[in-house]
Design a protein that fits this description.
There is one protein chain. The two termini are 42 Å apart. By secondary structure, the protein is mainly α. It is globular, with a radius of gyration of 23 Å. The strands form 3 sheets. Strands 1-3 form a two-stranded antiparallel sheet. A two-stranded antiparallel sheet has the order 2-6. The protein contains 19 helices and 6 strands.
Length: 542
């Protein structure tokens, strides 16, 4: 219950603190807590704002945490050996349906004819949410799920849901094009309908890339068609929510900043990720091979990872030398964990490497390690859901593996460049002192990194080797978004963890999330459904 209240307070305080809401809406702000299906007057700006913030906050909970663990971004003790059970997603499942999706459906049902812009935005957000539910769970209640006249909705097949989502996006774009009203309460694009149309087109493009192995969908034709549409193509178009900086009386900072900069809960950074940022020749203790194929340090390292402790020449952590050092150190203060490592313990919170400035608005690592606190950084973090660099990486994958036109290496370089630009600009905004310092990302460092990656790509002899490089670079750019990294791994089989850093204990890999037992036991329509976490979702099957 405490966990739910914490997320709920973040949602409300972020809405209250936003300058995007007009003063005329503030009097009825708390009315959005009522059931929108029974409300006699729908406050569209408030409902839209609540839906957007609650969507992102709930995605950043168990879905992003566990997907990021499965894709080796970070390590959590609860999921270190992929220990999903039928209670793992109970809160996030209920919350996604009952909060953002219920409010989005309320907008679709309650908006008037001259409010088609609200409908278009709500329909796009609903399509995005259900696309992720399919990606994560495979099959979910959809067609009957938000119908107030149906108490027990049936489960629907993922491929059928995806087919309808394509149609929903098209309808949403039509609604946005027909809209003439001013959109208020939009926490993401500030009511800019052109940007929402770009988001819709980009969502379809991502879904076509996601389904390139699925024969029932002509993904090559659809992807090519979307390349000729208006897409997210710059930082200003990125589909993301930005949190606030307030701590008291209303907490509205990025949830990962709240959880990691006060030592309340913590992820260990996965050693695979840190080794692929350091690129210093780290050797896997299991395979005896280099964990990274690169030879140049990633310029994003200091923006992604902040060290809380120094390191000495022997690789031990200075601050724990007297009491015995925790294992998991890969050198120079980068204390993390290997996936499956059973040795983590709770009092390491002040020792482990943690999140830097991007994307949670913490600190840039300036070689001054310290135990981070709530006062460090602004907390004005983001959750990058669909960005310009994602479009480039997906295009590179499609150009390499299908008949979609484009040069994969050029697109790979463009994807890395756009990611670097995004991270550097974000760091300069949230930690201005980094600009012009010795720790700022430089054009020269970025160019050297891209040249190194390009050389490795050009030296690759097979399509698989090249795809591994594209997806590995994509994953590093995705830092903070574990859901898309999990999608990429299941779709492509890359990054190649098995060769570079296998999971300790070698547990079977989960191909989907498990629908919680609370849903299965209370919904008679699902009484015969038995979720199998090792059955691939429809788009990941060859």
């Amino acid at each position: 219950m405490l966990k739910l209240n914490f997320k709920y307070n973040i949602v409300l305080s972020l809405i209250i603190g936003s300058s995007l809401l007009l003063n005329s809406c503030s009097e009825d702000l708390l009315d959005i807590n009522q059931d929108p299906n029974t409300s006699t007057q729908l406050a569209l700006p408030n409902t839209l704002a609540f839906a957007q913030v609650s969507l992102v906050s709930n995605l950043l909970d168990d879905p992003n945490t566990n997907a990021g663990s499965f894709s080796r971004m970070w390590y959590t003790t609860a999921i270190r050996n992929y220990e999903q059970n039928q209670g793992t997603y109970s809160n996030s499942w209920v919350n996604l349906y009952s909060r953002p999706l219920a409010n989005l459906q309320a907008i679709l049902d309650g908006a008037q004819e001259d409010e088609s812009g609200y409908k278009g935005i709500a329909r796009l957000l609903k399509a995005y949410t259900f696309s992720l539910l399919v990606d994560l769970y495979g099959d979910v209640p959809y067609f009957e799920a938000l119908n107030p006249e149906i108490t027990f909705p049936e489960i629907d097949q993922g491929e059928e849901i995806y087919a309808d989502l394509f149609l929903q996006v098209d309808q949403a774009i039509q609604e946005l094009n027909a809209s003439s009203e001013m959109i208020q309460g939009d926490m993401i694009y500030g009511g800019d309908k052109d940007k929402w149309i770009k988001m819709g087109n980009s969502l379809k493009l991502k879904m076509y890339a996601q389904t390139r192995k699925e024969n029932s969908i002509n993904s090559v034709q659809g992807f090519t068609q979307m390349l000729n549409s208006e897409l997210i193509n710059g930082l200003a178009d990125d589909f993301q929510l930005k949190y606030g900086s307030e701590q008291t009386p209303n907490q509205n900072r990025h949830p990962l900043h709240v959880n990691h900069y006060n030592q309340a809960t913590a992820y260990w950074m996965d050693n695979w990720t840190m080794a692929n940022l350091l690129n210093d020749g780290t050797i896997s203790a299991v395979t005896g091979q280099r964990v990274s194929y690169r030879n140049v340090q990633d310029p994003r390292l200091r923006y992604y990872i902040f060290r809380q402790v120094p390191g000495d020449g022997g690789g031990s952590v200075v601050t724990c030398a007297g009491g015995g050092c925790p294992i998991g150190l890969i050198g120079n203060g980068y204390l993390g964990r290997d996936a499956g490592d059973p040795s983590a313990f709770s009092n390491e919170g002040a020792l482990i490497a943690t999140f830097g400035v991007y994307p949670i608005a913490g600190l840039v690592d300036t070689d001054q390690p310290k135990t981070v606190s709530a006062s460090d950084g602004s907390g004005r973090g983001i959750f990058p859901m669909l960005t310009s660099f994602m479009i480039k990486f997906l295009h590179a994958e499609m150009a390499l593996t299908t008949s979609v036109e484009g040069d994969p290496l050029t697109l790979l370089r463009e994807g890395i460049t756009q990611s670097m630009e995004k991270v550097r600009n974000f760091g300069a905004t949230e930690m201005p002192a980094i600009s012009g310092s010795d720790y700022e990302m430089t054009d020269e460092a970025i160019a050297a990194y891209i040249a190194d990656v390009s050389a490795q790509y050009e030296a690759a002899e097979t399509e698989s080797e090249k795809l591994n490089i594209i997806i590995t670079e994509y994953q590093l750019a995705l830092w903070g978004n574990g859901i898309e990294a999990y999608n990429n791994y299941r779709r492509t089989g890359f990054p190649d963890f098995a060769e570079t850093s296998p999971v300790m204990g070698n547990p079977p890999y989960p191909q989907r999330f498990i629908i919680p037992v609370s849903e299965l036991e209370t919904n008679p329509a699902l009484s015969d459904y038995s979720p199998d976490p090792f059955e691939p979702v429809f788009w990941s099957q060859p």
